Amino acid sequence: MHGLFFVLVACTAGTSAFRLQQIKSTGKDHTVFFKHYYELHGEPVVLKCPSPRYKHLDFSALTPNITWYKNGSKTMISGKDEDPRIWAKGDALLFFPAMLEDSGVYICTRRNSSYCAEVAIHLTVVEKRAAREIAYLQILFTFTSGKIVCPELWDFTPNRTSLELKWYKDALPLEDDNEKFIILKGSTSLIMTSVLPTDAGYYTCKMSFPFEGAMYEVTRTIQLETIITPIIVYPTQKTTSAALGSKMTLPCKVFVGLSSHVHTDVEWLANDTIVDVVYKQSRVTEGERQEIVENGENFIEVPLIFDSVEEVDFYTDFTCLAQNRYGYQFDCLFGIIVIIIRICKNNVKQC
Ligand SMILES: *[C@@H]1O[C@H](CO)[C@@H](O)[C@H](O)[C@H]1NC(C)=O
Ligand SMILES: *[C@@H]1O[C@H](CO)[C@@H](O)[C@H](O)[C@H]1NC(C)=O
Ligand SMILES: *[C@@H]1O[C@H](CO)[C@@H](O)[C@H](O)[C@H]1NC(C)=O
Ligand SMILES: *[C@@H]1O[C@H](CO)[C@@H](O)[C@H](O)[C@H]1NC(C)=O
Ligand SMILES: *[C@@H]1O[C@H](CO)[C@@H](O)[C@H](O)[C@H]1NC(C)=O
């Protein structure tokens, strides 16, 4: 288990631009949730009445009795025969297509004879030229492969095998035969074989959706941010030597490029356990973290300090671990790099 290891986990699936939050809970069986949909004028929209699982009750059993209103309007939105553009079906409210004036709050009510759950759903419809203002943020690490996901399509494509998307970067179509991008039929992902800092920007995915003789288009805009995976610049060797009883400091220096220092954690482990836990802040300690700027680029340095090297240290793996996190909302997205160091007794060539 010696040497330089590289692990990268990036999961961006379904990063989305809306929040689901419980805003009100009045009484025992009355729940209001808020969900915000952002959509483009002229495109089909499906609002789903979520099934709030309130306490131990499963309101999904109330599906047949769902009613929809637009807040401020007294009339219930009914079936397709009443209005061929906006109608309710099952647990969904459909707009074919949505228009700017449809923006507002829609309230769906699920009920049976004893329970009632109300859900308020925000819909904001914007002009096509404002698509970037409602873009979904996604983040990828540079210098490795990654994928962008075209979000929130499944209401239109129950049949995944027939899914076909067109992808654009800053309005220019991306070619599938390009070595940089892989577009798989039946997938909502755009795979990038190697992400570069210059790949940041706006991506658009488009899906054609035929419905009752008319052809609609579903467009999603993604704002891609790229961040660097931290690089351990020091130590470069996986061994170092020390004499028994000597003092020693092992600095670990990490390059984070233009990324802010705050996104990167650097720590030392002894046999995979945090140093301060193993040595209880006594003989071996982690020194103070330093945030360094050199030529406009950011580094972090954390030293491992031995008051006195002991025999057991020659048999312990010391690991410097640098980990990138990008905000709590992306806690499944992080890049990790580690280097594992072995200490050798002075004058011992091989260890
Ligand atoms: C109404 O729905 C609630 C929640 O699912 C359920 O516990 C209850 O039995 C239902 N009542 C009737 C009369 O169906
Ligand atoms: C519904 O509309 C009324 C009057 O405009 C407003 O006071 C209320 O906050 C709205 N409800 C929701 C859930 O947005
Ligand atoms: C729907 O509502 C009606 C009357 O409000 C009620 O009789 C019926 O049981 C409900 N259906 C379901 C499946 O809860
Ligand atoms: C899905 O679409 C494919 C291609 O259009 C078609 O061959 C297949 O029968 C469809 N499957 C279902 C379950 O509709
Ligand atoms: C680390 O593991 C090695 C091998 O299992 C063991 O000899 C050594 O004592 C351990 N070091 C510490 C600090 O526990």
Automatic annotation (TrEMBL):
Leader sequence segment: 1-17
Assigned keywords, A-Z: Disulfide bond, Glycoprotein, Immunoglobulin domain, Membrane, Receptor, Repeat, Signal, Transmembrane, Transmembrane helix
Domain Ig-like span(s) in chain numbering: 42-124, 148-223, 230-324
Membrane topology qualifier: Single-pass type I membrane protein
Keyword Acyltransferase in record: no
Record has Transmembrane helix as a keyword: yes
Major localisation: membrane
Intracellular or extracellular location(s): Membrane
One GO cellular component term noted in the UniProt record for this chain: membrane
MF-aspect GO terms: interleukin-1 binding; interleukin-1, type II, blocking receptor activity
Domain of life: Eukaryota
Protein family membership: Belongs to the interleukin-1 receptor family.
Protein name: Ig-like domain-containing protein
